[in-house]
Design a protein that fits this description.
Structural class: alpha/beta
CATH superfamily of the largest domain: Aldolase class I
Number of strands: 20
Shape: globular
CATH class of the largest domain: Alpha Beta
Strand order of the largest sheet: 16-15-14-13-12-11-9-8-20
Strand content: 15-25%
Number of domains: 2
Distance between the termini: 31 Å
CATH topology of the largest domain: TIM Barrel
CATH architecture of the largest domain: Alpha-Beta Barrel
Order of helices and strands: EEEEEEEEEHEHEHEHEHHEHEHEEEEE
Helix content: 10-25%
Largest sheet: 9 strands, mixed
Radius of gyration: 20 Å
Length: 364
């Protein structure tokens, strides 16, 4: 049996010494207080001597080129390819986690791929990717690495995407999203009870992140809610969530309702019926939201983007494939001239639904 690889120790930001001699991580509201050698709840931020380090800087569980719609982002360069990667660990403890093998990993040897920020940016540009996505596990826990990758990407004209639960403190929030072009935030439910019991976290910091993104940044924002039978799929909760998004963030923010499948610690919970997604979409539209989508199911109607003024179908999708793209080069409806909210190229990308593994060398 080969010995375990030693984790890279990169100086972390967002911490301070407490009066009792512990080091407190200030990245997220967990506020982990650590003795020497201890790791935070996320597993990847560790106290070494009298400082905090990030143990996964430059190390990934793997790189793949995905369709941007898989993030999911439907209004951010549709049809384009996005170089995607994550590391290990997470600062939430979701009992329903769909990527639990990665987010709950305590095996540093699982992080086999190593790559510098410049190497990732170079690989994305060489592959013709419109963007690089920090995804699979929550990128806020490897913020220092993600920020360096984002800087390198912007130098090459490559955009950046964060798929996140949005659970972080204000200073880290501002630093992290300063370097992000688009994000999909998991709004996992709309009750504190759900967040506390099923994720080990709290709702308000996520709402604070969404408010900050929408009103204080130019980041393109979309939201995903995984509907779990009996947990967060009541009409009342879906209506409250949708009304909050419309009122506080605006009617043009896309909202994705996705289907749960039994996993991790909720294997006895049944999968989400397709009719639940259809019902949720109608509730959200009744609340005033213009762009509501379904996910994790085969539903062409639930993936189609309509003009907010004349209701003409502008982008027709089948799963992750673009079937029709009718936007004018200026991002407006060809029928009535209304502008569609989002970030668009003159033509849709042609990456399609495939997923392409990529190997990246450790240095550019």
């Amino acid at each position: 049996m080969k010995p375990a690889a030693e984790p890279a120790a990169y100086p972390a930001r967002y911490w301070h010494k407490t009066d009792d001699g512990r080091v407190q991580c200030d990245l997220c509201p967990r506020d982990c207080r650590l003795h020497d050698g201890q790791r935070g709840a996320c597993f990847v931020r560790q106290r070494v001597d009298d400082r905090l380090v990030l143990t996964t800087y430059g190390r990934s569980s793997g790189f793949c080129i995905d369709p941007i719609e898989k993030k999911p982002l439907n209004h951010f360069y549709p049809g384009s390819g996005v170089l995607s990667f994550g590391t290990a660990g997470c600062n939430l403890a979701c009992k329903f986690c769909q990527n639990w093998d990665m987010t709950k990993s305590r095996d540093m040897d699982a992080l086999m791929d190593q790559a510098s920020p410049a190497a990732i940016a170079e690989a994305a540009a060489a592959a013709g990717c419109r963007s690089v996505a920090f995804t699979y596990n929550d990128p806020v826990i490897f913020a220092e690495y993600a920020i360096d990758v984002a800087r390198a990407c912007h130098e090459r004209g490559v955009q950046t995407v964060a798929v996140t639960a949005g659970y972080l403190h204000d200073e880290a929030r501002r630093d992290f999203f300063e370097h992000i072009d688009a994000t999909n935030v998991d709004l996992k439910a709309f009750t504190e009870d759900f967040y506390f019991k099923l994720t080990g976290s709290h709702l308000q910091p996520v709402l604070d992140t969404l408010l900050y993104l929408r009103h204080e940044t130019a980041v393109w924002v979309e939201i995903t809610t995984l509907l779990i039978p009996g947990a967060n799929d009541s009409d009342a909760e879906i209506r409250a969530l949708s009304q909050w998004v419309a009122r506080e963030l605006g009617m043009d923010v896309p909202l994705h309702f996705t289907a749960f499948h039994p996993d991790h610690r909720m294997r006895d919970t049944p999968p989400t019926p397709p009719l639940t997604l259809t019902r949720a979409c109608q509730i959200a539209r009744d609340a005033g939201l213009h762009h509501v989508y379904t996910g994790n199911v085969h539903d062409k109607a639930g993936g189609t983007t309509h003009c907010t003024q004349c209701q003409a179908p502008l982008i027709v999708r089948d799963w992750y494939r673009i079937l029709d793209y009718r936007l004018r080069p200026d991002g407006c409806c060809p029928d009535c001239g209304a502008a569609l909210a989002g970030r668009f190229d003159e033509k849709a990308g042609s990456f399609g639904p495939r997923r392409v593994p990529v190997r990246i060398s450790a240095s550019p």
